[in-house]
Amino acid sequence: MKKIFGLVLAFALISGGLVFAGGAADGEAAAAGDDLIVVGYAQVGAESDWRTANTESFRSTFVPENGYRLIFDDAQQKQENQIKAIRSFIQQDVDYIVVAPVVETGWETVLGEAKAAGIPVILSDRQMKLSDESLYLCWVGGDFLKEGRDSVTWLNNYLAEIGRADEPINVVLLQGTIGSSAQVGRTQGITEGLAENPNYTLLAAQTGEFTQAKGQEVMESFLKAYDDIDVVFAENDNMAFGAIDAIKAAGKVPGEDIIIISFDAVREAFNRIIAGELNCAVECNPLHGPRVDEIIKTLEAGGTVEKIQYVQEGLFDITNAEELLPTRAY
Ligand code: GZL
């Protein structure tokens, strides 16, 4: 199903950060009728190192040399911008719409419009809660609940290794964007894991919006409120980096006075683990571009695809970070 890309130029909306990528990004008009597959991608924003790597994974995959023309939109973490971008993709009659939904709910109407227009929707990264599963074709992303559970298992083992398995442990939680499936799943996995051990007390949980600045601000407030924090769970690396700065400013030693566990495992997290400032990073692989490319190429060849597709994920700490850092792609 190919669209005459030249026609879409007349409908392209300038507002909302809508830009063309993959050839037309430089403003050159595409040859009308080129046989490229036009993909509209509604990205969450640019809030974290993970997101930067995720965006690059799409921009480097969906290029004309690979048979695509990408229309990319950065929603600046606002759902209304993503909905506007999806509507503009529908108006441009793209071949596929890819969405990384900033939160899980509020998508039924606009996905119904895409369905009515006959445009397949692929979800990447975060998930949507929908009453009608036919509104999207498939989803590629991380297992956020497992990531949360694995982080507590790591803490249980670490405390045993350092002889603190029987001590009361006070925990604070820096949550991601409330209502995003990454936050929902990680929070559930972490809180369920903590609840299984009576030694753990969750003192406070608050969103840091997946950003370093807000993560630092919330950690500063936690440190003012509690002088006996033993562990911080940060639902992404950038909030952990902010927490590290706050802990240092409070005269405490991150990674020693306060154990820090984060999610994503970007390259900088490896550096912090090696420096002893971060204790554990649970991976959430952002390289979804090639997976979505594979899905579209399968569909274009008349094939079928799995509805739910998890990416490979690991867990890193002082025992493996230095050895594996050279292998990290993001
Ligand atoms: C996870 C992704 C989250 C990352 C954050 O798949 O949705 O959003 O953990 C990013 O770094 O902001």
From TrEMBL:
Main location: other
Gene Ontology molecular function terms on file: carbohydrate binding
SUPFAM superfamilies recorded: Periplasmic binding protein-like I
Organism classification: Bacteria, Pseudomonadati, Spirochaetota, Spirochaetia, Spirochaetales
Source organism of the structure: Candidatus Avitreponema avistercoris
Alphabetized PANTHER family for the sequence: D-ALLOSE-BINDING PERIPLASMIC PROTEIN-RELATED, GALACTOFURANOSE-BINDING PROTEIN YTFQ
Start and end residues of each Periplasmic binding protein domain: 48-282
Top-rank taxon: Bacteria
Signal peptide: 1-21
GO annotation, cellular component aspect: cell envelope
Keywords, in A-Z order: Signal
Assigned protein family: Belongs to the bacterial solute-binding protein 2 family.
Localization in the cell: Cell envelope
Listed name of the protein: ABC transporter substrate-binding protein
